[in-house]
Structure formats: C-alpha cells, structure tokens
Amino acid sequence: MTGDLLFGVALFHSVAGGGSFIVFPTMLFGGIGAVAANATTAVALWPAGLGSLGGYREHFPKDRRAFAVLAATSAIGGGLGAKLLLSTSDGTFSRILPFLMLAAALVFTAGPHLTRRGVAIRLPPLLGVAFQLAIATYGGYFGGGMGIMMLATFTLMGMTHLHEMNALKVICGLLINGVALVTFLLAGKVVYLAALPVALGAVAGGFAGASTARRIDPKRVRRFVLLVAWSLTAWFFCRAR
C-alpha cells in the first residue's frame, strides 16, 4: 500500500464524497487490521471536515439551545462509539463489517429520499436527540453514511434551511469524529504511515474541491460511489462466508 494511492483516494473523497467506502477498504487491502483501519480512516479524514467549516460560517444554526444539545449529544455518542470499537476484536469487527457496509450503502443510496423536503413525520425534540445519539454512536464506531443520517434526522425534527442543516451536520460530524480521534490516538490504534497521506489528500482536496467539483457531473460521481459501495459490500459478504 503506497502513500500515493492513499493520497489519491483521499483527494477523491474531498471532491466527490463517499470516501469512507474507498479509504477504509484500501487500508484493509493494504494489510492493516480491521479495527486499526477503521480508526485510522476516521482520524485521517477528520481534517477534511475542518475545510467545510469556513463555507458554512454564515449559516451556523440560530437556535443556540438546540445546537448546544445536539453538539453535546454528538460528542458523547462519538466517544461511546469509539470505546465500543476499541472493545471489539478484529475477528468480531470483520464479521460485523459486511452488515455495516450494507447499512452505509443503503443509506447512501436512499440519501436523496431520506433528506427530501415536505416529510409528514415530525419528531419530538427528545426523540430527535435520541436519534442523534444513536447516529453519533454509530459514527464513532464506523461512520459510513453518517452525514446523510443526520440530515434526515434534522429534516424530521422540522429543520428546513438546507445550509443551516449542512452547517450543523459538519459541526456535529467534527465533534463525533474529533472525540473518536482522541480516543483512537490515546489507545494507539492509528497507523500513522497510512493516516498521513490520507490527511494530506483530504486537506488538498478541500482546497481544490470547489473548482474541481464544478467540472464533474454529480450524477456520474454518485453512480461511481454507489458502484464501489455495493461492489465492496458484496465482496465483504462473500469473504465472510
């Protein structure tokens, strides 16, 4: 597994999204253990979220109380998920992995429908917080499709301003992965030689992403990510047999 390959994969993630579907399996194929590969992916891709903050600085949520509750919930859930991952052996995680990939692929596929406007269901605030805690715990443990899950939950909670929802998603995602990042680093589960090129690619992609993304047909990018996600999901199920 070369640094150039990981750098390129991370660059694609920053421009097109869906990077966890590609970065994590790349590390697995490179011989990194399942738990360490997942932890290293989370740590390495975290800087990409920082680049998104600037673009949403004018759209931070105006409801400070709701923001504080969801932010705290995200941090708590991220820590719980990270601790859960660290208590999982490589063998157990490898057996769970196909189902995690399947869940992430389903969420990514159904994303446009999950985040559509005008939904009839309206979650009570407490239930919305419970949903966010579950999503954050999942995010700290694995994280594929986490962003779409959060947008769907915010929609069901009655939020309607798309930019504010995206800003809240970015902040909560940074908190979830940030707490998980510290937990993984302290536990010594991060493979730095793999994390560094991915982090550099994610940062470089953050700067180049806006201009590059405008020249790429988003439908084609989405179809490519879906093809990779479903192909890898099928491969992991076949390998687990």
What does this structure look like?
With 241 residues, the chain is mainly α. The protein has helices spanning 3-16, 20-29, 34-55, 64-86, 90-114, 125-141, 146-156, 162-186, 192-214, 218-240. Helix 6 (125-141) runs antiparallel to helix 7.
Order of helices and strands: HHHHHHHHHH
Q: Assign a percent range to the helix content.
A: over 70%
Q: Please, how many helices?
A: 10
Task: Please tell me the total number of domains.
Answer: 1
Radius of gyration: 17 Å
Average pLDDT reading: 79
Number of strands: 0
Strand content: under 5%
Largest sheet geometry: none
Broad structural category: mainly alpha
Shape: globular
Describe the secondary-structure layout.
Blueprint: H1 3-16, H2 20-29, H3 34-55, H4 64-86, H5 90-114, H6 125-141, H7 146-156, H8 162-186, H9 192-214, H10 218-240
Helix pairs in contact: 1-2, 1-9, 2-3, 3-8, 3-9, 4-6, 4-8, 5-7, 5-10, 6-7, 6-8, 7-8
